[in-house]
């Protein structure tokens, strides 16, 4: 059906934005998708931390769980005391990785989440039961959404080098201090050597372990120089990208973690008069992501709470970042029909099955947009002109809207 009949207007709105047959699936995905997995992992982190603090505050810990008799006392007691807090710190890091859809975070969480169950099964205190229940809910959901966490770690060469340097310094210090244990006061085991290296790099220096000879003093000095240097470089390499993403967000760029969590959204390519009205109409009902190269427009939309990706909407890599493969539909509606044609072509190359609705600024470009892959093309100017013509002659403009809706229903 041609654009002049107005049929695509109602059909586009009903089939893309109000598909009644897909509502149950959308609602189920909201409760069982990747977002829920991340949220439950974060909740488990908080609950584990609170439970760990509760165990630490007790004068003694009772081991009444089914695993208490299977674990040696030397392991069960420290686990009951410190396990909740230690697991919480690890889960907190993994929750951040899951939010960014990192595969390595999913693999680690697949081990850590069920391992946390050892804690409540060892103590079986009333305050530990909620942890066990939340694990039983989180882990199956974690397994169910395993395909949603496929992002590689993507560390830069500087980040890899800085992390390797820290590990190298710790290994060098542990082996060296244990080898020179006769020249230290307080080192007798590998655990003592590792403890000494960590407190030395952290510049804490409790004074319980001290070098007693010139060689051990020079060795300790080398640990301080190498350790603090590696740690400083690592902080800059790891924190720098986070600061850059914050600065980018000020100009309307979505962060990598926000992009990877997009599901069942609508991608809007370009920003013009038509898309402005679209955002006003659907912004509160559906999650929208606007892709525009205009930084001023992107910054303005960002301040209004609209998800924005400041980049070229005709670039296929940008469309992949906007996750058009997981979108409910794509709206192409800038003020430049030529750019919109390229945007439709790029979208079709990224995902041949996604539904595309385009707005033509000129009637002669309707067929061009349809020929390159748009499922429906709307000419707002022509529809507006017909409404004005009907009104100026004394007719009821609402009857034209009813005709348009009726034509769409007939199809």
Beta-strand content: 5-15%
CATH topology-level fold name of the largest domain = Rossmann fold
Main sheet makeup: 6 strands, parallel
This entry's quaternary arrangement is single chain
Q: Name the shape in a single word.
A: elongated
Number of helices: 18
Content-based structural category:
alpha/beta
Describe it for me?
- With 411 residues, the protein is of the alpha/beta class.
- The chain folds into 3 domains: 121 residues; 94 residues, Helix Hairpins (Orthogonal Bundle); 122 residues, NAD(P)-binding Rossmann-like Domain (Rossmann fold, 3-Layer(aba) Sandwich).
- The longest helix has 36 residues.
- Helix 8 runs antiparallel to helix 10.
- The strands form 2 sheets. It has a 6-stranded parallel sheet, with helices on both faces.
- The protein has 18 helices and 8 strands.
List the helices and strands and how they pair.
Elements (H helix, E strand, L loop, with lengths): L6 H11 L5 H10 L1 H24 L15 H27 L3 H13 L2 H6 L5 H16 L12 H23 L4 E2 L4 H12 L8 E2 L2 H36 L6 H5 L5 E4 L3 H10 L5 E5 L2 H9 L3 E4 L5 H6 L7 E4 L4 H14 L5 E4 L6 H6 L4 E3 L1 H13 L4 H14 L1
Parallel strand pairs: 3-4, 3-6, 4-5, 6-7, 7-8
Antiparallel strand pairs: 1-2
